[in-house]
Amino acid sequence: MARLVVLGGGVSGHTTATFAAKWLGSKHEVVVVTPNSKWNWIPSNIWVGVGQMTKEEVTFDLAPVYKKAGIIYHQAKAVSINPEGSASNEKPFVTIEYTEAGKAGETEIVEYDYLVNATGPKLNFDATPGLGDGNGQMGDNTVSVCTAEHAVHASHKLAEAIEKMKGGTRQKFLVGTGHGLCTCQGAAFEYVFNIENECRKAGVRDMADIKWISNESFLGDFGMGGLHMKVGGYVVSSKLFAESLYAERGVDWLIGAHTSKVEKGKVEYELLDGSKGEEAFDFAMLIPPFAGVGLKAYDKAGEDITGTVFAPNGFMKVDADYTAKPYAEWRASDWPRTYQNPTYSNMFAAGIAFAPPHLISKPMKSPNGTPINPTPPRTGMPSGIIGKAVAYSVCDMIKKGDKAHLHEASMAEMGAACVASAGKGVLTGTAAAMTVYPVVPDFEKYPGTGRDTDYTFGEVGLAGHWIKHILHFLFIYKAKLNPGWTLIPE
Amino acid sequence: MKEEELNFGKEKFSLTMIPGNATRSMRTCVVWQFIRFLVLNVKMIIVVRKSH
Ligand SMILES: Cc1cc2nc3c(=O)[nH]c(=O)nc-3n(C[C@H](O)[C@H](O)[C@H](O)COP(=O)(O)OP(=O)(O)OC[C@H]3O[C@@H](n4cnc5c(N)ncnc54)[C@H](O)[C@@H]3O)c2cc1C
Fold first, then answer.
1. pLDDT tens sequence across A74-87
2. Between chain A and chain B, how many beta carbons pairs sit less than 8 Å apart?
3. Which residues in chain B have Cβ-Cβ distances shorter than 8 Å to A240?
4. Is the CATH code 3.50.50.100 the one for domain A3-122+290-400?
5. Residue of A nearest to B48 (CA)
6. pTM of the predicted model, to two decimals?
């Protein structure tokens, strides 16, 4: 009997664990270690953040689902990995610390034959003074929609701001990225337009000054270096597409900005041209930068090998080409295909947890040397597809031996469907429905735009909103392993 | 003055394109959006299939 341990029960880890449990059956063990008791369909947190959905609508308990799937579940966080075992343990193991009420703080070791690290991001609020509370959590100055709890808090603050506007007090909304190295601009993009929509619905749009602040060097970069898509017979840059939406909805923007400090009602920033400035706000939602969750690794002798297993940003090294090279020499082939750790072949990383070889957007620095550029996004669809490919590989290794062919899922050969809500409402809602193929541009295969413009498109409309709403139900249905769940693609 | 052109008055917005009334109303026209819904689904399914 072999044991697969999956660290992280989010989009990617849940996909890996549930498929592996289905394919392996009861002959082998699948264990999930994750600190959360509930699964969260994170994309719908945007609607929680504007009071259009409740936390309960976007989350469900993991325990009954894992029980149904025959998965062993530890509500705990992984602290360290011993890929060679230790002096007293022959087998590789992870050290976990329980977060479950009643057992919180207790540690235990969990041995494994195969390990998948799908721990997602650490929300690194403390990277920007005043964005965090100094203890790794979000501070008091801004709100966030990165977790369902954060989104509930954001919705209360938004309701207060709307009440103030109804009472005649203007409000300034600042939404975007809280650091020069953030990713996940898409989530902030959705939130700013949902706020705008809520203000209109509440009849107070004229009392709201809404501004976007972001580390993108141009609007519509989205951490993917932008994209070109077919619109109205033209192939246009996402810059024009995004600027048009901001202009239409009266949302001002400040781009190429590294948010260097946050205080109550004010951010300080540095721009790509080296100038510095301040922006006041009454309500701010700033996405924190992401880092790895800080797992440590030790060899058999107990020596710290974290630097061998993980990149400096805390994400796990996989089969990518990490050789430092200039932007002009970046290739699609630098991106990983199997997500296997190069040192320990029984270890994989899936979703946000793998270390990308480099940015996708063009690297930029201010004259003061401050890097200001989006880091690469790994959105839901790639995270799910990678999670499934890794599950295939591990199952094959278990069934056919360690030399089994590994399944591949390069982000330079896969597309992503992104539906960015611009306001909720069955008949009045809109969303920017976009697809991009491939996620990582391949300028050798598609000279010019780096992407296949037959499959890279975008449009704004009610249809996009319907799709986003249907995806909400579909993915929660699938994650609950309801009948036919395997038929729903990632 | 056409309502949709008002925002061009702000310097920041003057160099981009803003959809006119017809485009905006088509965005929430249920019949047209139902057709787009079908088209978008087909396109997305193709991208999803190419990615697996
Ligand atoms: C507000 C918001 C909106 C978004 N909207 C979209 C969208 O519309 N479309 C889209 O495609 N993508 C969207 N994304 C991105 C999408 O949510 C991510 O791509 C996806 O969640 C990544 O999956 P993951 O499994 O890598 O990480 P996660 O889903 O974050 O899962 C990581 C899991 O690991 C657990 N974990 C953390 N630390 C440890 C530890 N030490 N040990 C064990 N487990 C640990 C976490 O609790 C979590 O359960 C959005 C993201 C945000 C924040």
1. 999 999 999 999 99
2. 96
3. 16-17
4. yes
5. A415
6. 0.96
